[in-house]
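#onboarding

Welcome to the new folks! Below is a worked example of what a typical request in this channel looks like: someone posts a single protein sequence, and someone else replies with the predicted structure as tokens. Don't worry about understanding the tokens yet, we'll cover that in week two.

Example request:
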Amino acid sequence: MCGACVLVSPSPAPARAQRLASGGDVVPRAYLPITIGGSDARSTNCPMTSTNVYDIIPIEDGYYKDNRITDENPDFRLSILGYARVDNEPLDLVNYNGGSDPNAPRLYSVFRPQRRPRFTAAYLNYQWNWNDGPGSAPPYGSRGPINDNPFFKVTVLDFETIAGEAIYIPERSVPIYGGNVVAMVLYAGENELTITYTRHDAVYLPGGIYVVHLLNFCVDPQLVAAYRAQLNGGRRSTGRLPAIRNDQPVGMARANPLTIAIRDTAKFMDPRSRKDWWQGMP
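Example response:
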């Protein structure tokens, strides 16, 4: 894990994402609900069926926020949290000093064959004003200001894809169940997938936890169905969630970039960090 890293690679003078109130060049991504098998899925040429099979594994410890809220919340859905475009940041790998985790997820492994894709756009995520008390309703608050972190100038990244190619999760070598399961689904919709590399139904653990958000691709319909089978009214109901192995595809690229964000102990990290997520890549 990155810890107290410092950016050491030279880059053009970074321009922080401007807030919406400034009237600057900000491109927010909005949450657009999609119904499985509906016209939205058909219009993007996403497959309606799949032969893939996903294991269902038990959640460790309790549910996220004691199951008080549904899965339509900004911790599980980056599309709800939102993000704004950042200009004048290098669309390339950057070098940070400090330590790194040899078991960190590898972002180049979302493709087969594995590769470093062209980065097409960079963003910063928004903060969130939570309101998840009794009687609250989705999305449990409102979008706050941009997470204008003085350290990480980019926290969300677009990857160029080839339309129709299979998409996988970023590989990690640490199994969490049964010897070959490495990740568990926190959210799956037709256009969006959120995974954790533990069996905890959470985005934060004191000892550290990686969470990856993948958006703007065709999520495998069997994975979406397997996830929704564990819910009742948007809340967990079976004590189990779908599991993913490194060699399992989780969907298919469309004719647009794949959007990815990665979190370490709830904090959004820079997906361009060479020493963390691109170890072994030139």
